[in-house]
Amino acid sequence: MSEVSKVEDGQIVSLEYSLLVDGELMDSSVGHEPLEFLQGVGNIIPGLENELYGMAVGESKKVTVSAADGYGELDPDAYADVPRADFPENIPAEVGTELQVQDEHGQPMYARIDLVTDDVIRLDFNHPLAGKELNFDVKIVGLRAASAEETEHGHAHGDGHHH
Length: 163
Description:
Strand 1 (11-21) and strand 2 (24-28) form a beta hairpin. The chain folds into two domains: 11-67 and 132-153, Chitinase A, domain 3 (Roll); 79-124, Thrombin, subunit H (Beta Barrel). It has helices at 46-52, 148-153, and strands spanning 11-21, 24-28, 35-38, 60-65, 79-83, 98-102, 108-116, 120-124, 134-145. Helices cover 8% and strands 38% of the residues. The strands form two sheets. Strands 1, 2, 3, 4 and 9 form a five-stranded antiparallel sheet that branches. The protein has a four-stranded antiparallel sheet with strand order 5-8-7-6, with no helix packed on it. By secondary structure, it is mainly beta.
């Protein structure tokens, strides 16, 4: 594979990153495998992807991503009230509890309990990081040209690629 010097579209970027939200470490690849993705096709959130252009291997950067360019603003409609009587007994009815429910198509959706009253449990279907400013610490640890197959499929084929 030919060496690539700077991040541009159509490259497989290996990124070491840490994500801080409200001063709290939410996620980090440090000590694990770096994140591998195809640049320029929206594999990662747009606000971060845009900031990586032109970075070289070994280069680090702090990137602040607004909610709009990250996981979106909070959606005031992404809440649902469930009668407490219908709520599964095996799930703790406490604010902040995360649970998985199915939408009408049987697709898993994640929700967090937002409010608990005697009658109703309100679920919040917003992404946990919606409405939040994201503070990334990123370091480019590898760059290579994407293979034809990767370009065609629109994502990196690492050992542990997951969707």
